[in-house]
Amino acid sequence: MLKFEAAVTLTLQNLSKGSFIMKKILNKVDFLIGDLELLSQCLTQSSRKPFDDEVCEFLNAVSKKLMKNPASRNYSDVVTFAFWIRKASVDQLKLRLVKKDSNIHLGRGIAFHIAPSNVPCNFAYSLVIGLLTGNINIVRVPSKNFEQIKIITEALMESLRQFVQLEHYIFLIRYDRDKEVNDLLSSVADTRIVWGGDTTIRELRKSELSPRAMEITFADRYSLAIINSQTYLAASVKSKIAEDFYNDTYLTDQNACTSPRIVIWTGEDKDEAKKVFWEHLHHLVAEKYNFQPVQGINKLTEAYLAVINLKDAYIENSYDNLIIRIKLSKIDSHVMNYKGNSGLFFEYDCNDIMEIRNLCNDSRCQTVGYLGKLTDLYPLINSGIKGVDRVVPIGKTMDFDLIWDGYDLMAMLTRVISLT
């Protein structure tokens, strides 16, 4: 422990002098926002209070720029992000989350974020929670050149020209998988936030944190949708429901942990409801989704593997492979081990909500998106299940909050100075 503390102290000293950066980062890290000189100064920056006024004003400025940018309209996830960081939304978060007590609440210090490679806007949400909780943020963004990253980064950079004091709190970087860089950035972090799933978490844990540092990890999860067939058939805006489900799934190629991978049908007239639902969705997918041949090959491969290995499962007939549905006669405990994406859905007809308890009694089960009465789910939710952190209407599964994956991120990213 003493050796590690000494190594961290030396790293901090070297970073402040610049030699650490020159030797370890200069040739490996690309900066989208920030630079080597600013990074070398970040260790001397003070943490801020949660929901700092300047930070909130900055986020509102970013929101306005995104809303005014015509390019944003091509990406509903960018628009959703812009809406989330607008003043009215942030004020609501502050009202709900900031504790009114005599203690002093501050950001923990430097937050090192590792964003997932397959969800374009996740890096931005992670950055914002770090800013709102008063931290200095070093965010590794995906290496893939998503257009959403470009749009959001440009809005951040333009807004920073008006809020120069915040330039020491925002660093967006790219680098190839490199343990040496991970080691060094982890050693200076007061909090490490890992979004990349089980494999990424295992890799990052090879890089030590300082003894007082905290780690927040977002492991591999799965989500499901529960649709009451009678509620669906009675709905007058079925095209809106299709769009909501599309945004929950296809918008991220079904890669987000919040994206439903299995659809549970309840109520009467299930067959009729399924026919209408999937027809509406297929029309929307054919119109909007940029489907690549490799996605079709991978999806079919995963579907065939699933039906070979799962009991009483078969692939439903379809027009094409924009949507592949695998009908389940029973819930197999291994069904969620098959991680198809880009429109691969398992389906199950449920007569009693407790039939899917085993599916939800798994710590990997994250979000339930529902269409119908929330009260119909209460027997399941109140049965002591190990999984399910969120129950939200379909169309809202990707709506971000500072309580996520069962974590109170506001509490975990701040520290308290107790005054008595």
TrEMBL record:
It holds the Pfam family LuxC. Keywords: NADP. InterPro entries: Ald_DH/histidinol_DH (IPR016161), CoA_reduct_LuxC (IPR008670). SUPFAM superfamilies: ALDH-like. GO terms for molecular function: acyl-CoA dehydrogenase activity. GO terms for biological process: bioluminescence. This is Long-chain-fatty-acyl-CoA reductase.
